[in-house]
Amino acid sequence: MRNGVSLLAPYGSFKFKALATKVGGGKEPQESDARCKKEIQLLLTLADGMKIYSFQYIWSNETFVGVMAQDLLAHSEWKDAVSIRADGFYAVDYSRLGLRMTTLELWNETGMDSVKAVSTTPLNA
Asked: Which residue intervals define the domain Peptidase S74 in the entry (predicted)?
């Protein structure tokens, strides 16, 4: 338990907004918990060790590109970008990493540029 919320909430408790509102790394943290994803494949490991994956959410067949919250929690410099949602699953504030989540289609067209955020809120701010 952390902040009184179970980290192992049942999958039936998902209360997600439409995926279309999630791509692009808006102001709201993105669902980034590995427990919410399937078809996970490592695409790239950045020079600083951060891993970028392709994945599908368990409720969708669309493929996205982004990070895994569990990876970020293992590194002191990135863990502050991770929060726990009310349902117990992890979310990531991509803007704090200088990144945004994207689709695999856009990644295939523009590569790393597709996940670079336009503006960021640095973790040490």
From this structure: 32-74
Tell me how far apart the alpha carbons of residues 102 and 115 are, in angstroms, rounded to a whole number: 6
Q: Which of 84, 74, 98 is nearest to 31 (CA)?
A: 84
Lookup: tokens for 55: 């994945």
Average pLDDT over residues 9-22: 36
Residue 1 is given by DSSP the state: -
With respect to residue 2, please indicate whether it lies within any of the assigned structural domains: no
Other CB atoms within a 10 A radius of the CB of residue 117 amount to: 15
C-alpha–C-alpha distance, residues 97 and 80, integer Å:
10
Does residue 56 fall inside a structural domain?
yes
Task: Report if pTM > 0.70.
Answer: yes
Q: Which structural domain range is residue 48 located in?
A: 27-114
